[in-house]
Amino acid sequence: MGKFPSPVAKFYAGEVALAFEYLHSFDLVYRDLKPENILLDSNGHIKLTDLGFAKYVTDVTWTLCGTPDYLAPEIIQAKGYGRAVDWYSLGVLIFEMIAGYPPYYDRDHYKLYERILSGRVRWPSQFDPIARDLVEKLITSDLSSRYGNLKNGSKDIKNHPWFQEVDWNKLARLEIAAPLIPAKKSGGDTGNFDRYPESHESYGDMSGSDVYGQKFIMF
């Protein structure tokens, strides 16, 4: 993904935090944060995509799902979990945006899970100590001390010194200029997306009468 300057990482992390805050207000747990699921709109603000793993959770759930690098320890251990796993993944995202790689990595998923459960992170020497303090509070396996999971909820995250200069009301109203505005020629420009070979499927003879036409007459 590459490294982001601290102000850039802070902007995107802040918008993700607001997105989580909104989803959680409806008891929805996202469960699949990763860079690939964060898109930018035409003004450079984030859009969380792929809610295939999102789930309505009022208490706990046990499903093993998500992206391996971003899995919270309680998911790996098959413990009941809730919205705290989203805040854990935010900590992983902040680390990756600043360091350029996730805090735990191994091509072998089982070894990766062992690394996650160990909780031992190799911190880059130049990692901002204030950002590190926030990340440590987000990726801790101790749910009784994980930020976002305490009695103040997301306020603990938003009030952390790393976010000190962020005006959360302006950020929520999209009044803070995005650090990157995607280049586009028109509203339908797909130039910022990777190209994939398209497959052409035959759907039969469409020249005959539509036997279901009357059922969908208003469509």
TrEMBL record:
Keywords: ATP-binding, Kinase, Nucleotide-binding, Serine/threonine-protein kinase, Transferase. Residues 164-219 form the AGC-kinase C-terminal domain. Residues 1-163 form the Protein kinase domain. It catalyses: L-seryl-[protein] + ATP = O-phospho-L-seryl-[protein] + ADP + H(+); L-threonyl-[protein] + ATP = O-phospho-L-threonyl-[protein] + ADP + H(+). It holds the Pfam family Pkinase. It is an enzyme of class 2 (transferase). Its EC number is 2.7.11.11. The keyword Electron transport does not apply. One of its GO terms (cellular component) is cytosol. InterPro entries: AGC-kinase_C, Kinase-like_dom_sf, Prot_kinase_dom, Ser/Thr_kinase_AS. One of its GO terms (molecular function) is cAMP-dependent protein kinase activity. This is cAMP-dependent protein kinase. It comes from Smittium culicis. The lineage of its organism: Eukaryota, Fungi, Fungi incertae sedis, Zoopagomycota, Kickxellomycotina.
